[in-house]
């Protein structure tokens, strides 16, 4: 069998990439130690989370009309947050964090990436922290943050079957670890990959459903890839990652970044998003449970995605690649119990290109303000070096 790394998948097939970007298999985690006492955790939600479903603007008069089968709100079992937004039922386990002021959200945010709506391009821009793909920057913004701090050293870590996180790639010393998960392909599956890679890109919406293979029981999908995906999801991969992250952060590590995948919901979103949101909720609850007491009080968790999804539900009860999205923030250091951001509205005239939630703030600005509060880095370094060309704007006061 041939062992395939994440980078192999990125270069092998742009068409299949839509599925692989959201695959539950590809979940590396990266660590670094730094000379401050706070903890910063950055989670990349690969596959483009639908923020309009995760935190539902049920108070917007146009919301229900855009989503015939996906409309949420308290009347459909969602948890009311503030009289305008509600929380998807799959995130219900996070309700105590919200009530305790340890969970918040930023709506209508996005990187500067626009229009082509490619998962991998979007993820590259997100993790590089630049304003374009041609920014001339080859390292990740978390690594550039570490480069600005003297005395940073690599923590003890392990690399098992997966590549590093681009967000932490760069000159600063960073150690890597990944759970025991590899992907093996039979000759038949390799041939299938070859055929798919020559197909029309329009097929990628259907291929995205491959990320949900673990929830399916289809005899024709009995390849080794299917079996590995099923075993990976059933094995609680996300909790293995959270367990290892918490252990290191209780000790010397101060920065951690990892991925949660499976957010590409072109079809049957109700099922797919429920599973992905459940894993996110599990992860955050587990991190709070393990980072107890003073460590949790000094912890900020940021979950970011490459872009949002269309405001309108599509014909297969899913949503397509969009623009404005949602940022999730948790931790004892977070001023939660609030949905941050300037709501742009969902009237057709308010939508970006008539189809997407209009971004009203750069997601990098929120990340920069959180980073500044957690590390004490100078604002000019954040705007010039860590996020080149960023205007952080006014401080939203996310960190206590």
UniProtKB/TrEMBL annotation:
Signal peptide boundaries: 1-33
Keywords, ordered alphabetically: Signal
PANTHER family (alphabetical): BLL7424 PROTEIN (PTHR43737), DUF1501 DOMAIN-CONTAINING PROTEIN (PTHR43737:SF1)
Protein name: Twin-arginine translocation pathway signal
